[in-house]
Design goal:
Ribosomal Protein S5, domain 2, 9 strands, single chain, 237 residues, RNase_PH_bac-type, 6 helices, four-stranded antiparallel beta sheet, five-stranded mixed beta sheet, alpha+beta, tRNA binding
C-alpha cells in the first residue's frame, strides 16, 4: 500500500491554472498533489551572443524554491549562492523544453521560463517541466496571435514524471514519503508523441533490473500521457 493510498500506476491529482500573473506573456500554477510550482514565460527580442545573427530562437529556464517550500526554512539562494542542484535542474528544464521546439520557426528571440516552487512534496523538477511547457505554449500563442511568428514553433508537448521502486514495487509519480525511501528513483522526460527526451535513474539503496526499468518506462508513458492531457485542457487545445 502506498502512503497516499494511490494505485501503483496512479498520478497524484493534477491541476493547471493559467493566467495567474499579470505581466508575464505566459503563466500557470501547476499542482501535482502537494507539489505546487508557479511557472512564467517571458519573451525577449534578443538571443544569447552565441546565437546572434543565426536566425535561431532559444528557450532557457531558471528554477528556485521559496524558503518555506519545504518542512524547514531554507535560506534564499540569492543570499547564499546558487546550489549545484538548482543549476542542474534549470538546465534540465531548458533542454527539455527545447526538445519540443522548432528554433527556426521561433525566430531570433528568447523565451525564459521561470519555475518557482511554492510548496514541495517530491517531483518538483517534473512539475516544473510540465508547467513550464504550458507557460511556454501561452507565450507562443501570443506571438502567433500577433503574427510575429507564422508557423507554430512548438512541435510537440513536453512533460515529465517520476517513477521508482518503492517497497519492492514499481510506482508512478513519487511523493516525498516515497521518494525519500525509494530503492530506485527515476525522472522521465517525454514528448506528447511518446518519444524520450531524458531519463535520470539511479539506485538509491538497491540495484534494479532491466525488467524493472522497462516497467518504470511503461509507467512513465502512462503518466506523461495523463499530464499531456492536462496540459491540453489547460491551454484549450
Amino acid at each position: 500500500m502506498r502512503p497516499s493510498g494511490r494505485k501503483l500506476n496512479e498520478l497524484r491529482p493534477v491541476t493547471i491554472e493559467t493566467g495567474v500573473t499579470r505581466h508575464a506573456e505566459g503563466s500557470c500554477l501547476i499542482r501535482m498533489g502537494d507539489t505546487h510550482v508557479l511557472c512564467t514565460a517571458s519573451l525577449e527580442d534578443r538571443v544569447p551572443p552565441f546565437l546572434k545573427n543565426t536566425g535561431l530562437g532559444w528557450v532557457t529556464a531558471e528554477y528556485g524554491m521559496l524558503p518555506r517550500a519545504t518542512h524547514s526554512r531554507m535560506q534564499r539562494e540569492a543570499k547564499r549562492g546558487q546550489s549545484g542542484r538548482t543549476q542542474e535542474i534549470q538546465r534540465l528544464i531548458g533542454r527539455s523544453l527545447r526538445a519540443g521546439l522548432d528554433r527556426v520557426a521561433l525566430g531570433e528571440r528568447q523565451i525564459t521560463i521561470d519555475c518557482d516552487v511554492i510548496q514541495a512534496d517530491g517531483g518538483t523538477r517534473c512539475a516544473s517541466i510540465t508547467g513550464g511547457w504550458v507557460a511556454l505554449r501561452l507565450a507562443v500563442n501570443k506571438l502567433m496571435k500577433a503574427r510575429e511568428v507564422l508557423t507554430d514553433p512548438l512541435v510537440d508537448p513536453v512533460a515529465a514524471v517520476s517513477c521508482g521502486i518503492y517497497a519492492g514495487q514499481p510506482v508512478l509519480d513519487l511523493d516525498y514519503p516515497e521518494d525519500s525511501e525509494a530503492g530506485t528513483d527515476g525522472n522521465f522526460v517525454m514528448t506528447g508523441s511518446g518519444k524520450l527526451i531524458e531519463v535520470q535513474m539511479s539506485a538509491e539503496g538497491a540495484t534494479f533490473s532491466r525488467d524493472q526499468m522497462v516497467q518504470l518506462l511503461d509507467l512513465a508513458e502512462r503518466g506523461v500521457a495523463g499530464l499531456v492531457a492536462a496540459q491540453h485542457e489547460a491551454v484549450g487545445a
